[in-house]
Amino acid sequence: MAEQDSAQERTEAPSAKRLQEAREKGQVPRSQELNTVMVLMAGAIAMFFVGQGLIESLTEVLKETLILDRKVIFDTQAMIDKLRQAIGIVAWDLGLFLAVTILAALAAPALMGGWNISAQAMAPKPEKLSPLKGLKRIFGPQGLVELGKALGKFLLVGLFGSLILWSLRDQLLTLGQQEVLPAMAELGYLVIWGFLAICASLILIVLIDVPFQKWNHQRQLKMTKQEVKDEHKETDGSPEVKGRIRRMQIQLSQARMMQDVPKADVIITNPTHYAVALRYDQSKSGAPILVAKGADLIAQQIRMVGQQHDVPQLSAPPLTRAIFYNTEIGQEIPSGLYIAVAQVLAFVFQLRRYRKRGGQKPHLNTEELPIPDEFRRDE
Asked: Where in this protein does the record put region Disordered (predicted)?
């Protein structure tokens, strides 16, 4: 029982297949804090560069739209022209500000988890409407982490905001002694810098949240040992299926091999344990090719097929073993066996001529065939 419980513990790192499936479901590591900080920082930086121009544009729009003649008020076309004029005035500065913030919003997910559009994640799920599951999310470990982050942000922003206000207290108090427009420009400058400093303080939260979200994502996708085994079976196939496929492949290979035996010029045997069938195309300059080989039952089947098709058979145990162990089906025999095989083929061709025309019967001493020591195999 203890072993079964241990096997069910999620101790294994998620496989590539598990990560891909999670990604298809929309489950990728995400840090909301990273997205928020990047958008706020981008907005603050954009305001620093285009803020003055945007304020001037809005001021001009207010002047143009709040000071109107009576004729313009009752002229529909004139009001449309005023609207177009107002849009044209603020379009550049406002568009630049929006473009920077949108780029930041798009870049944040790419930095962590990458962009991911999942139809499964967008599909409605009734279980998300369950109040019980909602309470579990709120009061569960993830909810406590989010509460901790919220409290941390509150304390961090409050602390940095207080420090910034305290450091700028003299400049803020002198604003009342300045003219309205210079005072507003100075105030805007201080607000932007203060806002940028507060956003920068949230980087501390991001540095904690990003590694946590990656760790939590990996933890949620961890697998049990049994799940790893099942996935390997699905990916590579069960041993039983693989064995059956292997047997079928061997059977098909043997069937193709047996089809080539009748085309052989000679079958050399051990004489009982091994058999090899060779074919030599005299019109080509290549060496003899091994068309079939086998041991025991396969060797017996090769000899039977050879007998049925009148393929000459010769008993040469050392040469048979040398070819069997050093040559694969469809390959040429090694160069070290050229002389021995040439003598065998010459004997076979002479034997055919003798059977057709008569004369002196050829003879071959198979024990004296020249076989190099590196190709020899003991019985």
From this structure: 1-29, 360-379
